Amino acid sequence: MHAPTTARHSPRWRAAALSLLAVGFCGSSFAVSDGQTPSSGAWEYLQKQFYPDRSIGVLDDSYMSLTAPANTPDPAATPLTLHFGDAAVGHIKQIRVIIDNNPSPLAATFDVAGGARVAEIGMRVRIDRFTSVRAIAETSDGKFEMRSAWVNASGGCSAPPGPMSAGSLGDIRFRPSPDSRSMLISIRHPNNSGFQIDPRSGEPIPSHYVSHIRFSADGRTLLEADTGISLSENPTLRIASDQPLPAPIVVDIVDSKDAHFNASWRGALAESAASSTGSGAGGSR
Fold this sequence. Notes:
Layout: H1 11-26, H2 41-50, E1 56-58, E2 64-67, E3 78-84, E4 92-99, E5 106-112, E6 118-125, E7 129-139, E8 144-154, E9 172-176, E10 182-187, E11 210-217, E12 220-227, E13 236-241, E14 249-255, E15 260-265, E16 273-277
Parallel strand pairs: 1-8
Antiparallel strand pairs: 2-3, 3-6, 4-5, 4-7, 5-12, 6-13, 7-8, 9-10, 10-13, 11-12, 11-14, 14-15, 15-16
């Protein structure tokens, strides 16, 4: 299994792209229609940007499903789960998660290594207002398929930061399932959106977010994710397979200030080891 080949962009380029998207979407109106569903104008624009001249099918749930709460209890940390059926596992090349009406609609792009048996991906995202959330999968045979869900929310991208908690920037925690088929990783990071206001000073908080995640098992990359401001504060990512994930599990993180963090989990009987390097990072522990 080999890591997918993907284009990498500098944090400065990412920040500029996010700003352009924010300007474009904040200056446009994609309002809720009389039928109490968001307008399709945002998706029409986004489809032209990301999938020009591509035909996108609509999958049934047995191949790929997207689970999201219709009314999120926390718009700043809304859980999303992508599940891939037996026919899809090992045949997914890329998945984009798009939140139509967010200031930065592209929440994450997951590049899956060839043959990697990724059966489920879970995350928490910010939802700014009533919107469609979409998962578009590119399969190994070059087809594009989509699932979507409505989510009713308000203010997720501008919600103030949560209270400070113990830990250092870039700390990574692992939580394996009892059968070792899934791993939940938690990353201590503010993931500031750039739309938040510091409650103490009243000044805008500059964007500072996790921009890239690489997830490896037993020396082989399973997937890489390009992410942005739509991930929640202290992001979480859960990867599940249809077979046990072999240790060691290694996670490498890069953020928009080019700080690098990494951690490894060596199995239930071995002590996990973690180290962080880069600006603002702590030492090994």
